[in-house]
TrEMBL record:
PROSITE patterns assigned to the protein according to its UniProt record, in alphabetical order: AA_TRANSFER_CLASS_3 (PS00600)
Keyword list, A-Z: Aminotransferase, Pyridoxal phosphate, Transferase
Family, as annotated: Belongs to the class-III pyridoxal-phosphate-dependent aminotransferase family.
InterPro entries the UniProt entry points to: Aminotrans_3 (IPR005814), Aminotrans_3_PPA_site (IPR049704), PyrdxlP-dep_Trfase (IPR015424), PyrdxlP-dep_Trfase_major (IPR015421), PyrdxlP-dep_Trfase_small (IPR015422)
Bias-annotated ranges (Basic and acidic residues): 1-15
Name of the protein in its database record: Aminotransferase
Signal peptide: none
A Pfam entry, by short name: Aminotran_3
One MF term in the entry's GO annotations: transaminase activity
Amino acid sequence: MNVDAKRSIEQDIAHHVHPQTNLRQHAEKGPTMITHGKGVFIYDSEGREIIDGFSGLGCVSLGYHNERLAEAAMRQMNTLPFAPTFYNRSHPRVAELGERLIGMAPGGMNRVMFQCSGSEANDTAIKLIWYANTARGEPQRRKIIGRIRGYHGNTIATVSLSGQPHMHAKFGLPLPEFKHTELPNYYRFHIDGESEEEFSARMARSFEELVLREGPETVAAFFAEPAISGGGALMPPKGYWEEMQAVIRKYGITFLVDEVVCGFGRTGNMWGAETWGLKPDMVSCAKALSAAFFPISALMFKDELYAEMMRNSDEVGVFGHGYTYAGHPVGAAVSLQALDIYDEIDLIGHVRKVSKRFLERCDAMQDHPLVAEVRGVGLFCGFELMRDAKARIPFDPAWKVGALVQDFAHDRGLYLRAIGDRISFMPPLIINEEEIDLATERFKGALDDAWAVVKNKI
Ligand SMILES: Cc1ncc(COP(=O)(O)O)c(C=O)c1O
């Protein structure tokens, strides 16, 4: 390690407080200091080359080097580095990006608002739903339903909506208006003999019971990721979305589809909504919108909701919401360039092509003694680790088997993400077949390393 890297690590430990991190472990062990990246590879201060099997945080769609994106940012910085979108002001790039996104959005969206993160997009959505319900004369319709293990962000409202107990603990959250329905993990939670379709119908019944218990007249919205990402790369079981959407429609619940991870090709279509036939009323997206080269997010919705916003704006005199950096010119320019690149390189076609190899290689790990279930789509795959796959007996959580696999993978030069004993594998969308082979070889090696430790405990 060179002197600069050592100094960076000391500075980091001394002052930088890290999100979503075990603080004691960080104080003792310090960070993995990533110094640069190229393609699907990142490099740390020890000089190690690591395949990023988690795309940063599910965001680095085009990998870690792209001159066109860098030039688009530079050009915009030299032309107009900032312009507010408050008070009727605008700039050409944000207007163009709005038109472009609406042109490609799923489900007939007409309007778009920009923010800097997925959390802010979803938080804005919650506010707009409440705002519109007030205009409609239904101010009591405030409850928002998410799912256990679902993830929609970290503002006070979006983390309340997320079903992540470790993000609620000690914060006095979730807020009372936020409710959670079941996690559709078929493998883990099906009753013996229950088919996937029957399980999905049971999930929908449980959702309907929650709506009825809360009172449908108080339920404003249901938020969901097409496939659960932060909760463990979990694909929906067969029939799940048909059953869930029937309940959503029956009670006139606003349906927000959170495309923050699935959007822009992850599942082999532009949107997760296309992959699973979702009919959203609102759509949030972020991350790959700018290929993660600039923090920007978008919330899209329909004219019906906009009409209600207009009524409130008329009454109050202003639509009283917004962030300083909403529709930032550099973010808009970078996003437009990213969307151009996606079209020009036929990113979706590429994902579909390499997905075959990716899923084949992932499926081949199904027989590993640590692995109970492998399920994926596009370049998005989840692995369930279990002590006994057949009897569905989990490992003792204290053994931290998922974390063990994650650490061994890192030692072998692959970054994966363990969420409890589920592993999320979602490389940058530009990954090629040789890199898939290399990544999955390292993954398999990490499973073997972890098994060598775990088998002695069983
Ligand atoms: C599905 C989903 N929604 C929302 C968010 C929040 O986005 P951000 O971290 O940009 O606020 C995330 C973050 O990972 C996410 O996975």
